[in-house]
Amino acid sequence: MKHEDTKQKILDKALELFSSQGYDSVSVGEIAKAVGIKAPSLYNHFPGKQAIFDAIVESTAAQYEADTDKIDIHVQNAKQDIPVFTEITADALFEKVRQIFEYSLHNETISRFRRMMTIEQFRSPELAALYSRRYVERILRYHAGIFRALIASGEICAEDPDALAMMYVSPVLTLIGICDRQPEREPECLEKLQNHVQLFFRMVHGSSAQRGEGHE
């Protein structure tokens, strides 16, 4: 097996173990065994378990950015996506939210990483802060930036963009959490997600929301 292939397999297997058992419960020996190599061989690729964890964080962030770029979602850069959300219809907005929702649930790496961080946020203040930055603060900041631009252009009602972001994002995160715990409820959650997006759309657009419901 090539060096880079082995390194990636170490990350994949470590993430699988961390997401199901927790970081502290998994040993380097267990990771090596899952990969199919001896523990000393693993150290040719990473100096230790913390280095593996750090590499998972970095590689998953890169994968998320690359994958979401395909559906014009750049959580790290709200300005880049403002044209995408300008004059968007309710149906088009839901389709975009549905894509990112299903990607978050069904991409194995992204799903396992989220589960791992859900567990690990209670292990240390540093990981709790990372969880908050990754899954709450940056997502709220991104949407607040979008709403701020739409308010400035007169497209949506002039309300506090940070409050709008909280109102918009919180139900989405709640529904993802439900699906993580009870995957069989995904169809129900998708229906709730559509209802939420359409209600929010009507609320922020006022009477102009008619255009998003086939009444243009």
Provide structural commentary.
The protein is an all-alpha fold and 216 residues long. It has ten helices and no strands. The longest helix is centred in the middle third of the chain and has 28 residues.
Helix content: over 70%
**Beta-strand percentage?**
under 5%
Secondary-structure-derived class: mainly alpha
Annotation, overall tally of beta strands? 0
Q: What value does the average pLDDT take?
A: 89
Major sheet description: none
The separation of the N and C termini measures 58 Å
Shape: elongated
Radius of gyration: 20 Å
List the helices and strands in order: HHHHHHHHHH
With helices defined by DSSP (H or I, 4 residues minimum), what is the helix count?
10
In short:
The chain has 216 residues and is mostly helical. The protein has 10 helices and no strands.
Element layout with pairings:
Layout: H1 3-21, H2 28-35, H3 39-42, H4 49-68, H5 78-85, H6 90-106, H7 108-120, H8 125-152, H9 161-181, H10 186-205
Helix pairs in contact: 1-2, 1-4, 1-7, 5-8, 6-10, 8-9, 9-10
